[in-house]
């Protein structure tokens, strides 16, 4: 570790280092070039657990009328999981209607849409093998209306709405995630006031998302919202963020990262409990009650493929590689943008993740990871 960033340190909370180019977004997206696709098997497991609700939603879509039936997925990333979900919806939908179908994959304009478009045309052919299906992509924040009024029949979002719409505070000095460290490792703090601020923002974000989708959906249209979060016994943040926090602090201690840069750095992501997901449906305070009826909601936990592999083969090195690549895919952009601009910034980021691998290999029991999620299926009221 060298003293790379001493001269160009960020002033505390300096927004120049943390602003993103898109309104109502706090990340530029996942690590691209196929990296997110290659490291998102746990997210697929969390999606798989709500596929029965997706089937139920498709079976009950309002399909009378003319023109295209539209399916839209928000926060699609590079598309592997998003396209798998869309394929499942189409399989159930096409026998139910003669109408053409438009599929829309949406994400931030800074997302790797090149990879998404390639995924939509593997080998030069449409991934959805029906001449009635027309695929497309739209860039924008999911917290804004992105599609024409009353044009969408089914809207979905998976593992995405936990990325907050804004940074409500400049500094989170004691830890790198609003939910705070795990109870296993007493390695930092987030004040109760700050936790409350993020909880309210997270509830308000659901309301923002619901208001935008309410404009786009046809009456009777369905909305499936699923995201990583917390159950009574597990939080998706535990393990991964303790490890990233420890890895970053290693470079603060060595002098590579100034302390005030660390204090201004946090991942603007929130792990909701189920009541924080559904609050906007029932509570008038968030300005979205009355738009949707609630068909189902649940908090649940899924098995994590890289944990299962490690349990069966005991290969700590491979486990560390899989585990770190998994969280690198969704933390790297924010981490990089939080560090002062410097020619060696990309290299430093790689060294932070390499250090995380070393720490995990050395102490795998310090960072147990579990995947918890919350979800709800809604119907747009008439
Ligand atoms: C963890 S990925 C989930 C990808 C895919 N849905 C899945 O489940 O595998 C989260 C996605 O949400 C996107 N995202 C974050 N904030 C967003 C926003 N405000 N509007 C739209 N997409 C956003 C990110 O760019 C990223 O592609």
Task: Return the CATH architecture.
Answer: 3-Layer(aba) Sandwich
CATH topology: Rossmann fold
The CATH homologous superfamily corresponds to Vaccinia Virus protein VP39
Mean pLDDT, to the nearest integer, reads 94
Helical content class: 25-40%
Core attributes:
382 residues; alpha/beta; Rossmann fold; seven-stranded mixed beta sheet; 12 helices; globular; disordered N terminus; binds S-adenosylmethionine
Short description:
The protein has 382 residues and is α/β, with parallel strands linked by helices.
Question: How would you characterize this protein structure?
Answer:
The chain has 382 residues and is an alpha/beta fold. The chain has one domain: Rossmann fold (3-Layer(aba) Sandwich). 38% of the residues lie in helices and 16% in strands. The chain has twelve helices and seven strands. The protein has helices at 35-38, 41-48, 51-59, 80-93, 113-120, 192-216, 240-253, 259-264, 274-282, 305-313, 316-338, 345-362, and strands spanning 69-74, 101-107, 133-139, 152-158, 217-228, 292-302, 371-380. It has a seven-stranded mixed β-sheet with strand order 3-2-1-4-5-7-6, sandwiched between helices. Helix 4 links the parallel strand 1 and strand 2. Helix 10 (305-313) packs antiparallel against helix 11. The longest helix is centred in the middle third of the chain and has 25 residues, at 192-216. It is globular, with a radius of gyration of 21 Å. The termini are far apart. It binds S-adenosylmethionine. S-adenosylmethionine (SAM) binds next to helix 2 and helix 4.
